[in-house]
Amino acid sequence: MTAFENGYPIWYLLGWDYQGMDAEGNPQFMGADGKLTTSPTTNDMTYIGQGTPTFTYGININMAWKGFDFALYGAGVAGNSILPVLHRTGFKNGLKVYLEGYENGTMPHPEKILGFDNPFWSSTGNLFKGDFFRIKQLQLGYTLPRNLTRKVAISNLRFYVSLDDYFTFTSYPGLDPETASTNNTSGAGLDWGSYPTMQKVVLGVNLTF
């Protein structure tokens, strides 16, 4: 769930505070009364994170030298959290995290958290950092000298190669931290299994007569 409440970030994530497992391996959560429980109610739900970033940043570099040109544009966010709410094809990276957690004793056995109505899936146990930095464009070009292009009635001829959305640095195990949140403002931070940003290799020619 997300909530809009005075004193908290806009549409913050409302869920349960996961506190490990009991002696039988059942997930347990912090209750509103300050006691651990394996059967939490909606009254025990609390602030667990925010879907909107607290910090956004970017970098833009342009350089040129003897006909060569180089451009780099990157953007990133920090301070936000993502709660996966739907597992689709390709989300096996997330499942890997859960299984590793089970093996090291921090996550319950899969049999203990069956069903998407289990409180675990709406708790801090299923919450991930949404921080990422993505190089949106990395481009290298070369413009032929004009003394060569003028001979064939061309005023400018440039060749370039570009890597668009090709490199992403993040710890989020889902498909794409940038597209993870729904476009609906009130659903920020909820990953419904959105289609990831495509990595593109672009070869191009700029020709001016």
Key structural traits:
209 residues, mainly beta, 5-stranded antiparallel beta sheet, 3-stranded antiparallel beta sheet, 2 helices, elongated
Q: What does the main sheet amount to?
A: 5 strands, antiparallel
Q: Which strands sit side by side, in order, in the main sheet?
A: 7-8-11-12-14
Determine the structural class based on helices, strands and strand pairing: mainly beta
How much helix is in the residues?
under 10%
**How far apart, in Å, are the first and last alpha carbons?**
58 Å
Number of strands: 14
Kindly provide the radius of gyration, computed on alpha-carbon positions and rounded to a whole number of angstroms: 24 Å
Unreliable segments of 5+ consecutive residues = none
Instruction: Estimate the strand proportion.
Output: 35-45%
Written as H for each helix and E for each strand, in order along the chain, the element string is: EEEEEEEEEHEEHEEE
Number of separate helices: 2
